[in-house]
Amino acid sequence: MREDKLERTLELTTSILSMRDLNALMRKIVDSVTDDFGFEGCDLFLLDEGKNEYVLMTTQGFPQSITDRVEGYSKSIRTVKDQLSEAERVGRFTYLYKSKPGENGSNYYSVLHPERAKLPRAQEDDWHELDVLYVTFEDPEGNIIGFMEPDGPRSGKLPSPSLVTNLEIFASLASIAIFNASTVEELGSSVKKLKAMLATTAVLQQPGDLRTTLQTIAEKLFDFVPFDEISVYVTDWDKNLLVPVYATGQYADEIMADIGPMTGLAGTVARSGNVEIVKNSDEDDRVEDIPGLEDIEEGSTIMAIPLKGKSGVAEGVLELYRDPNRRFTHEEYELAEPFATHAAIALENAKLRDELQENLESVQKAYEEMKGLDKMKDSLVDTISHEIRTPLTTIFGYVEMASVGMYGDIPPKMKEKFDTMLLQVRRVNQLVSAMLELSRLQNEDLKLELEPVNVAMVTREVLRDLEHEVANNKHIVTVLFGNSLPIVQADRLRIHDVVENLLSNAVKYTNPGGKIDIGADIVDGKLHCWVKDNGIGIPAEDQKRIFDRFFIAESGLTRADNRVGIGLHISREMVRRHGGEMWFESRKGVGSTFHFTIPLKPGSARKETAIINSKANRTRPH
Ligand code: ADP
Question: What is the mean pLDDT of residues 607-614?
Fold first, then answer.
């Protein structure tokens, strides 16, 4: 290219502006410098922000031996600053260092023609072997993100003003191209990393086993930090052990079998909580007894990362192995760290899962035992109830006959005793019947004997049975319906029990002289009955449990007052089996109202239960 061909420069720069692959772009830049700007060689450095150094990225035109020797060569920011300040600034981007007579030619800059290094400059505008031309690249803020060093102009002359102009244009556009391509590259690697992290996060959320999870994490980690082998150990702080949970490579099985004390490299890392990078396993005493390692002739470079859980304590240790020529770096640790965090979470999750499983098993065992006990209790209740019932009926019969004088006259004092005995026997009988009913309910072998029932009549019968108690308590009982109510298909005896339970409760839990009302109406195709008292009421905190088996609410009374806590449970169950529902409203110290419904037509139950329920919910305690 002729130096003054601005057009060609523009052509070149436009072609590089669209390049997104940083490596290709850098090669293209050095190629252009040698092919189009007339230099024999060129190298290009870029700033590595992590290292704070300018690293040699690519060279062109130098002998292969030199290229090999300078691979990975870098200059500190300070050195570059010094070199640029020693040079003359001939443009915004271009600096020229003109060597001085007698300067040492053995340095890096005499690589093209070392034999000329000692020769003096023949003419003022001649290029000398030790001259250096710098062309910098800048980011939009004017920071130097890299530079190139075009070397050995083919013209043999120092760059003319027009060449400098072209270099300036080229450098300004190359700066933009490099900045864009590096940004794209950075974005690309961030996206790649994010994707890998997402993939490992996703695997953490699946209920997979620990091995599979660690395997996925290892595979993703490999893309960022290549390794030959990996192993993961879990720390058992109680037993002071390191337990291998994942390993790859030829010796994986041996490693997995190698549960050992918390010593050596992994032990150190677990205790300190700090990452360790071992240059060569052969030269580090802490590396001990890792199966397979002793067989590798040149040793291994090892990176051991603590896997810290939420508490900050190491749940485990992750070790990466690689041949010692490719030593692990701190930058690689930074790349590996998020993966290690994920591995730590995986270990914690696995631990939690194990604990949960253990708890579940013991709960299950306890539950099974309880079920067994419950069954035993039920069959016991069943047997005892049956066994007691027969003699009880006999006793009842004899006592009753005796009390009415069938076996001869009895004095009034004796009669009183007999009556108390009868009352007690009746109570025991009731209790036994309730127990039997309960066990029948549990065994699901209860059958309803349906017949047309007039609940009004049933209520009268119950009241007759309770006459005594009502009179003793001076309760004012009002029945708000006549002698007939709509007929329901029901099991007469069971409905009798239900009404009796509600009424006897009303009597039991209402102070002497209290009021008890019994009412009925038709709601949604069902007969709705209620028993209202102005008794002691039920404390709000007990209301939820009132229908539970054997539940007795807080009250002034004791169990000795004939309280068992199964009447309501059985009654509600009975009503439900008829297709009805039972509910109540109550307020402590004010009174209670218990309701139940029975469908007028059997079979129409299900649908309407819901309505009654919602009605029950709507009804506020009075
Ligand atoms: P029991 O009356 O044999 O204890 P229930 O199952 O019939 O058993 O009743 C359970 C509990 O509900 C009673 O112990 C009592 O605390 C409470 N209860 C039932 N009915 C009433 C009522 N009308 N007034 C106040 N409390 C009641």
Answer: 34
